[in-house]
Amino acid sequence: MTSVQVEEHHDEHGGNGVVQGSSGEGEGYQRGLGARQIQMIAIGGAIGTGLFLGAGKAIHKAGPSLILAYAIAGLVIFFIMRALGELLMYRAVSGSFAEYAREFIGPFFGFVTGWTYWLFWVVTGITEVTAAAQYMQYWTHDSFPQWAYALVFTVILYGANLISVKLFGELEFWFSMVKVTAIIGMILICVGILTIGFSDAGDTATVAHLWNQGGFFPNGIGSTLMTLQIVMFAFLAVELVGVTAGESKDPKTVLPKAINTVPWRIAVFYVGALIMILSVVPWTHFQPGVSPFVAAFEKMGLGVGAAIVNFVVLTAALSSCNSGMYSTGRMLRDLALNGQGPKFFTRLTKNGLPLIGTTASAAFMLVGVWINYQWPGEAFNYVVSFATISGMWAWIMILCSQIRYRRKADRGELPQSTFKAPGAPYTSWFALLFIGMVIVMMGIDKDARISLYAAPFWAAILGVSYLVLKKRNPQAAAFNKRKTGVAASSDGGPVTKD
């Protein structure tokens, strides 16, 4: 069964119902995302402006030791993705993080996760469309207003997400292809410089730059630790592949393959690229706010480097905004299906698209157009602060849910996943401790601390909203296993439906 009928369920006592779907993996969506698209969505999620732009600041802080930071953080990301994969193979559903948090931790955490992940992508969409508008100024030199670019990009991506999920997948495929091609091209050029010695950097390029310019930890291990929040920000959105579960063709085969490519993606696109760049150009030549790719191209004497990188980061920003359009509509629908959001968000078009949820999210993203109109020079900084902490909340919920699921599966209360996370639950606990350390580092770093200030306000809003929801609709505050085929017995244990 690849789709379900969605209907409003009223209990036998006439209480407020929760909009539910029958057991089935499609949830009314169309499975329009093939293996080729899922693979590139997984790759693209791990490559964003955090690498192309943010790495310059991180290199300036940590020097060559940033390579180690990306390697360790990449291992943690793999643990997170394998934990997500185990849950997906247990129950592949769209809106997966909120669903798992709701089932294994509690309805309140599902509520918080769903709305926080929605806010994460709305905020990210605003920041990325703002960044894309700024990148366009490189070619137009203020001849076209920045706010107008933001509006055009928002409308185009919104329209694309209303046509079909397949078109979304195609856009992500080609956006990711641009990023992948750029990084592989840079690596090959650097390999040529190191082996053949061509270009202006040929005479000085050497892998000894990794330890000859003040050592591998030139500013101390503490400085390397302080870059971890920049490093983790670069990996945000890698979990997006989980949101595609309800619209993937053959998810039981495609999703594990996509998740298992995480180690080599990080090894090549982050660790490999940084090793090559820092071997060709000493780390002391990089400055905050300047893309390491642009600096490397300039050192090589390739004048087109700035234009190339500008085009790549433009596609990276548009890719992120496109992902935001996609995921927000699905997350709002998942919340509505569980009675934790307005019921009208459950409606789908004849193409299986959450029109109302996507439209509402796009409307919030249009706030970015107004911000670009009012403050074009500072727009990006006004809206970026909350993205990192809200994105990491999803990772925390994935790990906690997987730990609880594994415990129940081992007791025989739930079926075992066909894609178990190796080393779990110990790897999941390690990942949780690592994320906790990153949050502590964010609190110490005055530049990143603002990300933590917004969290209590958002938590207060969600707390009050949940209390109101619980009073108005008690069923929405009690987990209903609407997609599992398992009902709760009176003593809290599972009762399998025949």
TrEMBL record:
Domain of life of the source: Bacteria
Extent of the signal sequence: none
Regions of compositional bias (Basic and acidic residues) in chain numbering: 1-14
Pfam families: AA_permease (PF00324)
Region described as Disordered: 1-28
Compositional bias (Gly residues): 15-28
Segments passing through the bilayer: 40-59, 65-84, 104-127, 147-168, 180-199, 219-241, 262-281, 301-321, 353-373, 379-405, 426-444, 450-469
Entry's localization field: Cell membrane
Predominant place of localization: membrane
Keywords: Amino-acid transport, Cell membrane, Membrane, Transmembrane, Transmembrane helix, Transport
Membrane topology, record value: Multi-pass membrane protein
Domain spans labelled Amino acid permease/ SLC12A: 38-473
Gene3D superfamilies: Amino acid/polyamine transporter I
Membrane found in the keyword field: yes
Listed name of the protein: Proline-specific permease ProY
